[in-house]
Design brief:
Layout (H helix, E strand, L loop, with lengths): L9 H5 L17 E6 L14 E5 L2 E8 L9 E6 L5 E6 L14 E3 L8 E6 L3 E5 L6 E6 L9 E3 L8 E5 L4 E6 L4 E6 L9 E3 L8 E5 L4 E5 L5 E6 L5 E7 L8 E6 L3 E5 L6 E6 L5 E6 L8 E5 L4 E6 L5 E6 L12 E3 L8 E5 L4 E5 L6 E6 L9 E3 L8 E5 L5 E6 L2
Antiparallel strand pairs: 1-32, 2-3, 3-4, 4-5, 6-7, 7-8, 8-9, 10-11, 11-12, 12-13, 14-15, 15-16, 16-17, 18-19, 19-20, 20-21, 22-23, 23-24, 24-25, 26-27, 27-28, 28-29, 30-31, 31-32
Length: 411
């Protein structure tokens, strides 16, 4: 049996977040090698927010949301050099706000239209802040009603050519801010929110909508002005992960949810009607959607607590293949990410498991084609980004001890 760091923290099982990656055709990979391990370790073993990574100017940077023990100086947003993992800047969270949820998943986006992609993240200081990507200088600070848990979205909701920053705090309050910090609208859903919001043309009207799913089972879509397009219940089950994509080639995106009770379901983005629903086992999780097998139709890649990974047909929810990622006892299993990690022009799945294993999986048939192991728990999905501009995405994994591991996959 592999050694592992076991964290008996039931809440972590409920609060992992997801997203969406758009991709094309599947492929193969070979060796998975460790490039570096960051020095951002903390005294807790339950860090569970994914990093952001991007090519910034002539170099790559990785932004790590680091949580630590209460009332310590361990909590911070750390910017790491993608080439070697050394820290280039830190923004600390005050000790009185340092907790397991100190900094939420960051986003990298040009929110103010100045041509520079900033780093945005919310935290237990009950605010959303934006920082210059290379210096860490603060460029925006706006209040929330509670601490933020999920990645903010930077998107031109109203089609006026300027971006809005939309963020959901852990209590289900949705805020839309202009780039200058002006609050444009706020909606209160009044329910714990762990799943990330989804953004896209969900209604097919040519505008962008914003979707939210709650731990109370509420699923809702808002238009650019903050009005509810529709609101539904996810079968009375707590939603922990979400994703969105056009699953049926009709030109509009569907809203995919995964619940702690084990349901994965696709809602029609325009009406909220359930297109399909499938039970895959407790603590279902989704993150990536794409045509991994090259058949012309997208797949939804979903995991459950037992480390079973399934490819579900995007249009019907039918299981195309399934595989078990580890036989070790685990508390939960993060969903996989999808991208070209070996630079061959095809995509692979990168699937961490709670026991510290990271597997590269062929999306054509679910076969494992490369692994990496570190004996520390993982509670969130991997981040894939081509930070060195070589045509292949590097793999960045936040481990429970607060250290980020950078992996490289060779074909």
């Amino acid at each position: 049996m592999r050694g592992r760091t076991v964290v008996a923290l039931a809440a972590v099982l409920l609060v992992i977040v997801g997203g969406v990656v758009a991709v094309t055709l599947g492929g193969t990979a070979g060796d998975v090698s460790e490039r570096w391990v960051s020095d951002t370790g903390t005294s807790i073993g339950a860090n569970h927010h994914a990093v952001a990574a991007a090519r910034i100017g002539d170099g790559g940077l990785v932004y790590a949301p680091v949580s630590g023990s209460s009332d310590t100086g361990e909590c911070r947003l750390a910017a790491l050099h993608a080439s070697n993992g050394t820290t280039t800047w830190n923004v600390p969270v005050p000790a009185e706000h340092c907790t397991i949820h100190a900094v939420a998943d960051p986003a990298v986006a040009d929110f103010d239209g100045d041509g520079v992609r900033e780093v945005l993240a919310s935290s237990t200081t009950e605010e959303l802040r934006a920082f210059h990507p290379t210096t860490g200088d603060e460029e925006l600070s706006v209040p929330l009603s509670e601490y933020g848990y999920t990645r903010p979205a930077v998107v031109d909701l109203d089609g006026d050519g300027t971006a809005e920053v939309v963020v959901v705090d852990v209590d289900g309050s949705v805020f839309s801010y202009a780039a200058n910090g002006t609050l444009q609208w706020r909606q209160n859903l009044s329910g714990t929110t762990y799943a990330p919001p989804v953004v896209g043309d969900l209604t097919g009207d040519g505008t962008t909508e914003f979707g939210v799913a709650l731990g109370t089972s509420t699923v809702a879509v808002f238009d650019a002005g903050g009005e509810r397009v529709w609101e539904r219940e996810a079968f009375g089950e707590s939603v922990g992960w979400t994703a969105s994509a056009d699953l049926d080639a009709d030109g509009t995106a569907e809203f995919v949810v995964a619940t702690t009770a084990g349901t994965v379901a696709a809602f029609d983005g325009a009406t909220g009607e359930v297109i399909w629903r499938r039970s895959i086992g407790p603590f279902a999780a989704v993150h990536a959607i794409g045509d991994g097998d090259g058949d012309g139709d997208p797949e939804v890649y979903a995991t459950n607590r037992a480390a079973e990974l399934r490819a579900l047909d995007g249009e019907t929810g039918t299981v195309e293949w399934e595989t078990t990622l580890t036989n070790e006892p685990v508390q939960m299993t993060p969903p996989p990410s999808l991208g070209d990690v070996d630079g061959d022009g095809d995509v692979e799945l990168v699937a961490p498991t709670n026991d510290g294993l990271v597997s590269v999986v062929d999306p054509v048939d679910g076969s494992v084609i490369g692994t990496y192991e570190r004996e520390v728990s993982v509670f969130t999905h991997a981040t894939l980004a081509d930070t060195d501009d070589d045509g292949a995405a590097e793999v960045y994994v936040m481990y429970g001890d607060g250290r980020v591991v950078a992996l490289e996959v060779s074909g």
